[in-house]
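Objective 1b of the project was to move from sequence-level analysis to a structural picture of ligand recognition. The entry below was assembled by the postdoctoral researcher (A.K.) and checked by the PI before modelling. It contains the amino acid sequence of the target and the SMILES of the bound compound, zinc ion.
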Amino acid sequence: MNTELNQQAAAVKTELKRMLDTGCSFADARLYGEDRSERLTLYDGNLETNYDANERGIGVRTLYKGAWGFAATADLSSIPACFDRAFANAKAATMLPGFPKDMGPAQPTKGQYRPPVKQDPFEVPTSDKLALLSGIDAQLKDDAVAHRYVTASFQRRMIFYWNSEGTEVDRWQLNTFGSMAVMAPDPQGRTQRRTMELFCNGDGTRGWEWIADPAAFGAHAERIRKELAEIIAAETLPPGRRDVILLPGQGFLQVHETIGHALELDRILGYELSFAGGSHVRLEHIGKLRYGSDKLNARAGIVANSPGTFGFDDEGTPQRDYYLIEKGILVNVLSSRTDLAEANAKAGRIAIKESGTAARACAFYRTPIDRMTNINIDAGEDGTLEDIVAATEDGVVLDVPVSWSIGSNREHFHFGTEIAWEVKNGKRTKVYKNPTYHGHTLEFWNSLDKVGSKPSWCLQQVPNCGKGEPNQIMELGHGIPVMRFHNVETGEKE
Ligand SMILES: [Zn+2]
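Corresponding predicted holo structure:
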């Protein structure tokens, strides 16, 4: 820590003690020494976005008589005033009806987290970044392609956390995202698209070296260009019930929308009803509900190379790897410390034993809420994509979302994907366009009958999950194997 930061840390610790002396049961502070984000986008070869921002500041929470107060400032010379405002807000909140908040006991933690990075992208000259994107753009170019884009974005955050229990955490986050797409109208005039996102198998590092690795990104340009041509020439997927094989590029969204969001404790308690929605999951379901088939093992996991891995959450709790759904049974939910007491009181039992280390805020001026971390599906034992295709009589392989519609309680869903490959008698036959599938969350997950082995598993990044009021955009990851679902409703009836 430098001198300035040492002085700020000393001021925060003095204020945390003062809050306890004033009658608060808990207080904490997150100081962002840096919150840098950069985005570069080429659209049809032209530089459309060149965005670079940096934010610094502190966010303070105080818990007084069961009510939260929050305040934030970018003026790091006025830390005591920020604590005063947070305390005044908590006092005001005590006058509002609500379930009294209680952080429960926790051992103080001291720790540090650094993500695996070889080359910091913020040290790479913009000209080198543009050269990489231009090289990929050149490979996307084709007479049959009407529009193309390629984009890279980077985040670097230095966050210091302290609370009134003595926890002190110092962590960095560094994330790298990449995406490319080609688009063209089909003979009916409908725009078709094929996309590729920067991906990996969960190992490796998170810096510039990742996006610069052709195997992880650039080398896929030619493939998506060719696949777009196949989509343009294809017929629309005929409606009918058939097996659906989701590649990780689509499986991640299925997990995100029908497992991840459904298992956020604040949604289960109804705190997100006015914005993001609720959940079909009830507190009494924890430990009992059959969410999916025996093949379904979902966890809030730790994946080294993922934006959903951060060492400690925004309440200073060390990140844990734990099952949400084990052999198809719902065993846990995504939680922070904040709502555990309320959830267990309402359940009439200890339904959730400890924080799910899912307290996350998108900036110093937002409060932490229950967020997804890495919501992964464990790899199974059903082999590669080719093995699963070979075992399928009548089905489709689907990849990459183009549209999604989900009931606010996450009970029903309807997804459209970029591409479908028909599977007949164990062989991929032809490409269809405009594929869709829909179903009921529990029925669908109970129809999971093949789960690919580790070589089929890969990490999909989500840079833009939206939740909260005011809205918070959060980044996370999903480690997903190839998955087959039996007898699913697909396509649109006339
Ligand atoms: Zn989301």
